[in-house]
Amino acid sequence: MSEPVENQSLPSETDAPASPDASPETSKSVDAQSMKPSTAAKKLGILLAAAPADFQSGVVTRDEFIALQNDPPEWLATLRREGPHPRPVVAAKLGVSISGLTRADADEPLTTVQIKELLASPPPWLVEERARQAKVIEENVRVKAARAEAAAKRAKKAD
Q1: How far apart (Å, rounded) are the C-alpha atoms in residues 20 and 69?
Q2: Does the pTM exceed 0.85?
Q3: What is the C-alpha radius of gyration for the chain, rounded to an integer number of angstroms?
Q4: Strand partners, 34
């Protein structure tokens, strides 16, 4: 009978001694549990250029990111509510794809007010792109249903 193996911990990067010239910012940026401000902004759904300078210039740790998600500071709540919004958010709010924004040459950041104005009186490109997006979604639903039906037939045939 084999004896239980003791819980041995392997050395991790955090156990390694820091180099003498490493500053706290340098060691923080090397940590695998942190991300660049651009990545954090993308995950938070905000435009990095509109974020405060201290957010843009430093790294964001996982704990800081979770805190921003769970209890957003006023600047983050305001950015999410009023914008300017990045392209993925603009596209989602308008009901079009990012490619549709690019085709219409309308891929600049927009505020919530500008988005509402576009939705209130949609220009021809927006009507066209929303129709195109609806067709794409409809086709995706059709393909998914066809694949599910084919998988059900294969499963039935395997029985």
Answers
A1: 35
A2: no
A3: 24
A4: 61
Beta-carbon contacts of 59 under 8 Å, excluding residues fewer than 6 positions away, are 25, 28, 29, 31, 34, 35, 36, 37
Residue type, 23: S
How many other C-beta atoms are found inside a 10 Å radius of the C-beta of residue 131? 11
Determine the distance from the C-alpha atom of residue 62 to the mean position of all C-alpha atoms in its chain, rounded to a whole number. 15
Count of positions (residues) in the chain: 159
Burial class (CB in 10 A: 0-12, 13-18, 19+), 54: exposed
Cα pseudo-dihedral 110, 106, 132, 83, rounded to 10: -10
pLDDT tier, 32 (very low <50, low <70, confident <90, very high otherwise): low
Report the DSSP pairing between strands 34-35 and 60-61. antiparallel
Q: Residue 31 above 70 pLDDT? A: no
